[in-house]
Amino acid sequence: MAQVPFERVVHADETPSDWLTYSGNYAGQRFSRLSQLNRSNVNQLKLGWVYQAKSTSSFETTPIIADGTMYITETYGVVKALDARSGRLLWSYQPSKPKGEDLSVNPVNRGVALLDNTVYVGTAKTHLVALDAKSGAVRWETVVHPGTGYAMTSAPLAIDHRIIVGVAGGDNGERGFVDAYDPQTGKRLWRTYTIPAAGEPGVETWANKSYETGGGPTWVTGSYDPVLHLLYWGVGNPAPIWNGTQRAGDNLYTNSLLALDPKDGKVKWYFQFTPHDTHDWDSNHIPVLFDEMINGKMRKIVAVANRNGFYYVLDRETGEFLSGTPFVRQNWADGLDAKGRPIFRPGSEPTKEGSLIYPGVGGAANWWSPSYSPQTKLFYLAAGERGTKFFLGDLKYQRGEAYLGGGVRHDDADKSYGAIRALESTTGKLKWEFKLFSPPLSGVLSTAGGLVFGGTQEGNFFALDAENGKPLWDVTLGEEMKTNPISFAVDGKQYVAATAGHALFVFKLP
């Protein structure tokens, strides 16, 4: 049975055969220190085994691997434990599904957390469940939120004496929050709301009491610095999504990165990327932590490739803005000021006639993970080049339904494309790119073997040279990839895994 104490996860880089947390380590780097698979032999990769999901909904799990056991999720919060050598099913957990009108909630689930000998999963009914890692038996189940309109799609983050979770539902106008729970009992330890209430700091940034339906979801797993004792979590867009006429102001703390004290959830600092967003540019991204020299000084950095098209470098101790650089085409801002606030370009708001804005509604980046390599000092990401025509519409709020205030149309579909891009991690300067036929829906993985793995909407899984982006290997999996690749090792053999369509594919050397 897996035994994964907190200290083992803190030092996850020392046991690269495992993949102990959603992003591989607390720093969100999605970098594997395994090197058996490298530039010279990656073209020999062969299929090892396949696991077929039982659901036909989107399969977006990131597997967790510890001591030869793989833990994955399917829709609604189904958990499967598999033998990582063969894919043989060891046990299965089936949560109860929402009923009636609640079936409209997002059924997607992107993974579990593992701490000590317990597996933690969030469900579509907005429950947090603790399972015995050996048998799958339920140890406890906690209702995170009893109302409609919410869901839990992201993997929890397990840290010392805390299980941290976020929620989806902001597009319905539901008030976002980040929670911490006791790993042993399921008792809630704190809750930090992302939208201030009356009398709280930041409420003045919401006109007309619009904070009451302000959104601000937290549906992507955050990162953690165990030395600074800071938790980093992204906050999504405000609601209504495309019509901001009744919510004048910056709309804090939407489209922000929050640095939280894990003891009590207090906000130590925040950085807002897109004030008063009207383009659905959630800041639900993986914050990536690393230390690098900037202007002759070693800095503790948190980097974010934002959905709004800018790559941000912040001091992760203080939230100080260090730099921001466009990494895709954008036409909504005339740059960023000295503090990182965007200089909005006139005419970039949605209109009745429609405004063609870059990046489009899917964003320059999205929930899928980037990667940072401590070897190359490069930041790798899957970028989307696409514009969208944004239309202003009428406002109608109905509890539990999408609060839109407009609509979108892709008018430049014939010009859209995607790319895997390698950026200089401290500046955002482009070092190389590998173009894709369409904007990708899957993340990237970098490895100590000098490789970058990625996937396409068309179903291609591929490996690139991490130094220059040269293609080294690819295989057609037959369905779109909406996943984040991982790598692990069992019995001295390195594997690479990713989902496509409704299946998990695991590759190894002959």
Task: Describe the 3D structure.
The protein is mainly beta. The chain has one domain: Methanol Dehydrogenase, Chain A. It has 1 helix and 38 strands. It has a 5-stranded mixed beta sheet with strand order 1-32-33-34-35, with no helix packed on it. Strands 2-38-37-36 form a 4-stranded antiparallel beta sheet, with no helix packed on it.
Largest beta sheet, briefly?
5 strands, mixed
Overall pLDDT confidence: 95
Distance between the termini: 28 Å
The fraction of residues assigned to DSSP E strands is: 35-45%
What CATH calls the topology is Methanol Dehydrogenase, Chain A
> What multimeric state do the chains show?
single chain
Number of strands: 38
Helix and strand content put the structural class at mainly beta
CATH class: Mainly Beta
Radius of gyration: 21 Å
The spatial strand order of the largest sheet comes to: 1-32-33-34-35
Helix content: under 10%
CATH architecture: 8 Propeller
Sequence stretches where pLDDT stays below 50 over 5 or more residues: none
